[in-house]
Write a structure and sequence with these properties.
heterodimer, A: alpha/beta, 3-stranded antiparallel sheet, B: alpha/beta, two-stranded antiparallel sheet, globular
Chain lengths: 286, 249
């Protein structure tokens, strides 16, 4: 079996301008933030981002990397709105495809099943229909119901962050919610997983239910060990959200100087220097 | 009993939304709706299911602080099963709402370049065509109650009708509760009607703060909380009185 270990920058080296990239997690929860930071250090541009959006979308939007955003919401959870995303929208800098949360799930599921679309009720009668002029309906062959035909959200690459993985790509979540990371993985040509810890295969289920194994190795092209790699989003049970840091991030969205200061302090160096700055900030606050 | 605050009256009005719902998932967004759902479950609607806002369904004992998990409801299950299956009643917020119950939480202005980006449509389109939906507006004003919403996140009666049988089959915008009163859409053309004004609120005040004409043919007064309800709100469900931050006294 292949050893799929990679570095963050090696993963980003596999990405190309203009790609459609799905980002796992949900809002400000278990986002592959170390991989997002690695994208910010690269020159990648014109990305189509598909995400249940949180600060992953905010950071990429602030850095001007997103050409098109496919989303149902963008939120920081404990802070309702992401200021960077809001600014990018209000400045007209994003092409968007905005869907209902359930339509988004149906689109990923269709892609994972290699279907062109899945029928869904959600979306009917709403602005989702008018703001997505390509969206079509499908008539039931069994009744008079006409439903939304949610197109497959096919991805070039998916990026997800898990609690544990082995070197072959078997990956595990240990918190209360898998989110949609399995669908992201299967909707993509290639999925890269960052994990808090890479451990031997026989340790994955030691004292843990087998249902925690969300991804098997056939769905995973590369594995990165990235401790604290979801920071500042939550990654239960390893850690909760860093609310102090998130507030600082949200503050940075208020002015151009704020963003530059945040960017230059936290996002210019490598992941180790990011984590060192985070630790330093925590000590400053204590 | 007469010393009930406006926030407490609003909590009870939200609780009343769940009358007769039975054994379904109540999904209240915002503090006053959450208190209302818990109050309903502690009194006349004991079979309601309530989550912690994340992946766990918690028993009524949990409302008083002792967390007891009775079920698992991760987001995927919510969107794949719970919402489409329909055994759910959501109370959502609304940045804008119009006379046929269309709601906007997505963006203000032109969708391609909004003057103010909000959350996005979230689950509004799916909620409104799949199961009973109510709204909570803590500050009733002409900015919220507008002639036409900028983005239709939650589907109102006119738009459901236009979208056909699949949209109307389970569409059920039940009520709107605000800091001023309770509203529904039980009129011949399914436009908004005043059900009740909260004690101390005049119809003129409601009219002046609403950007469209309301049906006022059968207005009552919102009922006051009972002693038991006040006890539960003040001593069990919200001892820190966070409700007064959402609704000014």
């Amino acid at each position: 079996m292949a050893d799929k270990r990679m570095t963050l920058d090696q993963v980003v080296g596999e990405l190309e301008d203009g790609m459609t990239i799905g980002i796992g997690g949900w809002g400000s929860r278990r986002k592959p933030m170390a991989l997002v930071r690695a994208i910010l250090r690269s020159e990648l541009k014109d990305l189509t981002i598909v995400s249940y959006g949180g600060p992953d979308v905010g950071l990429l939007a602030a850095a001007g990397r997103i050409k098109k955003l496919v989303f149902g919401f963008v939120t920081l959870d404990s802070i309702p709105l992401d200021p960077h995303f809001c600014r990018a929208r209000q400045d007209g800098k994003l092409i968007v495809a905005e869907y209902d949360e359930g339509m988004f799930a149906a689109g990923l599921s269709a892609a994972a099943k290699r279907l062109p679309f899945l029928p869904i009720r959600a979306g009917l009668g709403s602005s989702v229909v008018t703001t997505n002029p390509d969206l079509k309906t499908v008539r039931s062959p069994y009744s008079d119901e006409e439903l939304i035909a949610m197109p497959a959200l096919r991805l070039d690459v998916a990026l997800v962050h898990m609690n544990r993985a082995d070197i072959h790509g078997n990956a595990q979540y240990l918190g209360p919610d898998p989110y949609f990371d399995d669908d992201f993985a299967l909707a993509a040509d290639r999925c890269f997983v960052s994990a808090e810890k890479v451990i031997p295969t026989d340790e994955l289920t030691r004292g843990k239910p087998v249902q925690t194994l969300l991804l098997n190795r056939s769905a995973v092209a590369g594995v990165v060990e990235a401790p604290n790699g979801a920071h500042f989003t939550s990654c239960y049970p390893d850690y909760g959200r860093d609310e102090t840091f998130q507030r600082r991030y949200a503050e940075s969205g208020k002015t151009a100087e704020g963003w530059r200061e945040f960017h230059d302090r936290f996002l210019v160096g490598d992941e180790a220097s990011y984590q060192a700055e985070v630790t330093k900030l925590r000590e400053e606050a204590a | 009993m007469s010393d009930a605050t406006r926030a407490e009256i609003a909590v009870v009005a939200c609780a009343e939304l769940f009358h007769g719902d039975g054994e379904i998932v109540a999904s209240p967004m915002g503090l006053v709706p959450q208190l209302g759902a818990k109050l309903a479950r502690q009194t006349f609607a004991p079979d309601l299911l309530l989550s912690d806002g994340e992946a766990y369904l918690l028993t009524p004992e949990s409302d008083a602080g002792q967390k007891v998990i009775e079920g698992w409801q991760p987001f995927k299950k919510m969107l794949d099963v719970i919402v489409p299956h329909g055994k759910r009643h959501v109370i959502m917020g609304a940045s804008q709402i119009d006379r046929f119950g269309n709601q906007n939480i997505s963006a203000i202005g032109d969708h391609s370049r909004p003057t103010r980006q909000l959350l996005g449509v979230r689950g509004g389109p799916g909620n409104t065509v799949n199961h009973r939906t109510s709204y909570w507006v803590p500050r009733h004003s002409t900015r919220v109650f507008v002639d036409a919403v900028d983005v239709v996140s939650g589907v109102g009666y006119d738009n459901a009708q236009k979208a056909g049988p699949a949209a109307t089959a389970f569409h059920d915008v039940h009520r709107v509760v605000t800091n001023l009163g309770v509203f529904d859409f039980e009129t011949p053309d399914r436009s908004m009607r005043v059900v009740s004004a909260h004690p101390g609120v005049t119809l003129d005040e409601i009219t002046a703060n609403t950007g469209f004409a309301l049906d006022k043919s059968s207005v009552t007064e919102t009922r006051m909380p009972t002693d038991e309800e006040l006890h539960l709100i003040r001593n069990v469900l919200d001892p820190k009185n966070l409700r007064d931050k959402e609704v000014r006294a």
